[in-house]
């Protein structure tokens, strides 16, 4: 394999590792999985998110009680992502969409960008500095959850901010009975 192709493959692998790191952050926030969340950050990483500025661990400890008290669930969805790699440092911009279902059944949405400096230390890419640019927010009208009247809808598990969430189940199995609804419902 020629050097240019090998360099492109290494760059693609680095970008994939950075994308995986970003996903660990989001999933850790949404599942209340502190260890997973912290695995996205170097121990000395700095976070600047809304009024908070400090360590990633302190940010988690600051944000989780608010999320738990006010919201039933959150989705930190990652969108467009650019990564510029220079040796063992990378700069990344990731658009995000945040959606929360609040305990009062209202919804809250916000969007913006995570601007991150990643560093590769001991062969592993993690966030060293994050600035959260919150660019908009709204409160859209809430609607009932679809298919809530299906008798076994929760048989495969329900969304949970804990290791009880179906995404942690190994092996993932189906516990619902076969059903093919008519086109009319």
Automatic annotation (TrEMBL):
Region forming the signal peptide: none
Superkingdom of the source species: Bacteria
Pfam families, alphabetized: SnoaL_4
Region of interest: Disordered: 154-185
Residue ranges of every copy of the SnoaL-like domain listed in the record: 11-131
Biased composition annotated in UniProt, kind: Basic residues: 173-185
SUPFAM superfamilies, per database record: NTF2-like
InterPro entries documented for this protein: NTF2-like_dom_sf (IPR032710), SnoaL-like (IPR037401)
Name listed for the protein in its UniProt record: Nuclear transport factor 2 family protein
Organism: Solimonas terrae
């Amino acid at each position: 394999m020629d050097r240019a192709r090998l360099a492109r493959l290494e760059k693609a692998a680095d970008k994939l590792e950075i994308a995986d790191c970003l996903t660990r952050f989001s999933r850790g926030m949404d599942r209340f999985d502190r260890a997973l969340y912290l695995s996205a950050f170097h121990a000395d990483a700095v976070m600047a998110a809304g009024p908070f500025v400090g360590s990633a661990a302190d940010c988690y400890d600051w944000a989780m009680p608010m999320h738990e008290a006010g919201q039933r669930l959150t989705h930190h969805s990652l969108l467009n992502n650019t990564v510029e790699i220079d040796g063992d440092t990378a700069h990344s911009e990731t658009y995000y969409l945040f959606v929360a279902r609040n305990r009062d059944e209202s919804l809250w949405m916000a969007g913006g960008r995570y601007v991150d400096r990643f560093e590769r230390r001991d062969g592993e890419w993690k966030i060293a500095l994050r600035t959260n640019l919150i660019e908009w927010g709204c409160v859209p009208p809430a609607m009932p959850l679809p298919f809530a009247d299906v008798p076994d809808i929760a048989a495969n598990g329900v969304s949970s901010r804990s290791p009880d969430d179906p995404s942690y189940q190994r092996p993932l199995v189906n516990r619902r009975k076969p059903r093919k609804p008519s086109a009319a419902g």
